[in-house]
Automatic annotation (TrEMBL):
Its main location: secreted. Residues 1-18 form the signal peptide. GO terms for cellular component: extracellular space. It is found in: Secreted. GO terms for biological process: androgen receptor signaling pathway. Keywords: Secreted, Signal. This is Secretoglobin-Dr1.
Amino acid sequence: MKLVTILMLTALPLYCYAGIGCDLMDNVVKMTIDSNVDVNTYIDNLKEFLPGEETQEAFKFMKECFLDQSEETLEKIKVLQQSIYSSVWCARY
């Protein structure tokens, strides 16, 4: 799970570097980390970005992994997210 989290969060600067969707990506990450958002609500909010059933199942699995984490771990993920956003690579976006 931690490897998935690290890979997902390290992809953010590259996504921002492309100059598109940083706010959108930020909202998706916040929804993913938020333990108050259940799997069905999460999938409903992302429906337009999920091209097929396999992608939808992968996103369900990822959200369930985050729901299984403690609040302490989720807080640390938020700190990591802010560190990435404050990095040299994302600072200009």
